Recover the amino acids of this structure.
């Protein structure tokens, strides 16, 4: 029996695993905070049983912390759910500002661990293309993963979408360290496979400190 | 016994420290790795409890830095991995380290602290 390696499928699974793994860590943190604050509430009631007065202000603060973490975990679960559904349709109309914001949200903790800030610059009017949403999210992540090591001292990656005559371009900006990175390995096989699937092109502009993705207006079915 | 807790989640690490203090353990906390390095230069701790994934520096890298400053200090890792097996598989340091999976039970943390100090 032969095994045919599906580059896009494998890359997609790696992307899915990386993002859900990161988000599950964040949910664990929210649960851990809820756990400790619930534990403190329990400690205070045990102390009250032994005659120590309960500070109502402390109880209120602890309750507020629990509510805040429940909201945080709920937000992460909503993001995970939206991510899961981005595979539902093969080709659909995608608002690129929203895609950039979404990928920045997905990769927020991974960026934070690397000490990098992600800044999405919203355009004056929406930029929309018909494309494969999940593949595009995957490609933006791979570019971002590379870009986060190319920020130089600035430690910030800017993301923005612009309309072009034949479609749109996505820019990853403020990459002052781009010239210091060996760019021969980027784009690699995975990025190239996704670029082909999206009928997109990638350019690295060291002078402008940018990575530019050119997308067609409609990739067709 | 003095314990230093390090985790970038301030609300977690402050609550854990308070719960340890309620149980008679002298515990301090910081939520920035570099603050931990500064803290051990001015204070003496018997044990450091470190989150594994933190911004700018992992708990494993922080342990290496702290070991240079405090050769005798002992360490426990707290991890957000799904299980202890996942942590072992994901870290070369894990095989020789003490660790707990979040959310941490306070009794388990105290038991682990005693275990590490008696090792």
């Amino acid at each position: 029996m032969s095994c045919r390696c599906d580059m896009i499928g494998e890359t997609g699974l790696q992307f899915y695993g990386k993002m859900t793994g990161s988000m599950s860590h964040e949910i664990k943190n929210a649960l851990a905070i809820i756990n400790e604050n619930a534990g403190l509430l329990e400690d205070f009631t045990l102390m009250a049983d032994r005659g120590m007065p309960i500070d109502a202000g402390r109880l209120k603060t602890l309750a507020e912390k629990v509510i805040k973490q429940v909201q945080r975990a709920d937000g992460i679960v909503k993001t995970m759910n939206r991510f899961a559904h981005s595979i539902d349709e093969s080709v659909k109309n995608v608002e690129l500002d929203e895609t950039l914001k979404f990928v920045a949200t997905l990769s927020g903790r991974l960026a934070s661990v690397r000490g990098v800030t992600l800044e999405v610059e919203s355009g004056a009017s929406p930029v929309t293309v018909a494309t494969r949403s999940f593949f595009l999210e995957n490609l933006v992540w791979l570019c971002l993963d590379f870009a986060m090591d190319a920020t130089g001292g600035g430690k910030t990656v800017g993301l923005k979408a612009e309309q072009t005559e034949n479609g749109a371009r996505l820019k990853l900006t403020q990459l002052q360290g781009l010239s210091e990175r060996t760019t021969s390995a980027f784009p690699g096989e995975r990025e190239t496979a996704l670029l082909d699937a999206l009928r997109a092109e990638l350019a690295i502009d060291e002078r402008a400190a940018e990575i530019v993705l050119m997308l067609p207006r409609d990739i067709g079915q | 016994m003095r314990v230093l807790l390090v985790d970038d989640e301030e609300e977690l690490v402050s609550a854990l420290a308070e719960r340890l203090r309620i149980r008679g353990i002298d515990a301090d906390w910081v939520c920035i790795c570099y603050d931990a390095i500064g803290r051990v230069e001015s204070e003496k701790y018997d044990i450091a409890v470190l989150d594994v994934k933190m911004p700018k520096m992992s708990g494993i890298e922080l342990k290496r830095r702290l070991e240079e400053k405090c050769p005798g200090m002992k360490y426990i890792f707290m991890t957000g991995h799904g299980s202890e097996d996942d942590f072992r598989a994901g870290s070369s340091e894990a095989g020789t380290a003490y660790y707990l999976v979040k959310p941490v039970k306070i009794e388990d943390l105290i038991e682990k602290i005693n275990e590490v100090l008696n090792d």
The mean pLDDT of chain A is 93.
